[in-house]
Amino acid sequence: xxxxxxxxxxxxxxxxxxxxxxxxxxxxxxxxxxxxxxxxxxxxxxxxxxxxxxxxxxxxxxxxxxxxxxxxxxxxxxxxxxxxxxxxxxxxxxxxx
Length: 97
Fold this sequence. Notes:
Number of helices: 4
Distance between the termini: 10 Å
Radius of gyration: 13 Å
Largest sheet: 4 strands, mixed
């Protein structure tokens, strides 16, 4: 499987822009609904030591943070802060091996 991780927070404007402008739009929306793709979400709306530790592991200290894992990318493919459909699709294809 390919794993799409979305670390977000309710107060994050960029997170909302990514969600509305990319993740909930075609063709990304349908791609993320496939059975071979697992979506995981980390919520940093309230402070969380687990989320902070995960972000630090990737040298990130703020949200949004998106990363894609899979057989072709066991270490993960971090995505840019401002998502594009092309970046998400390319990372999923690469991670799928």
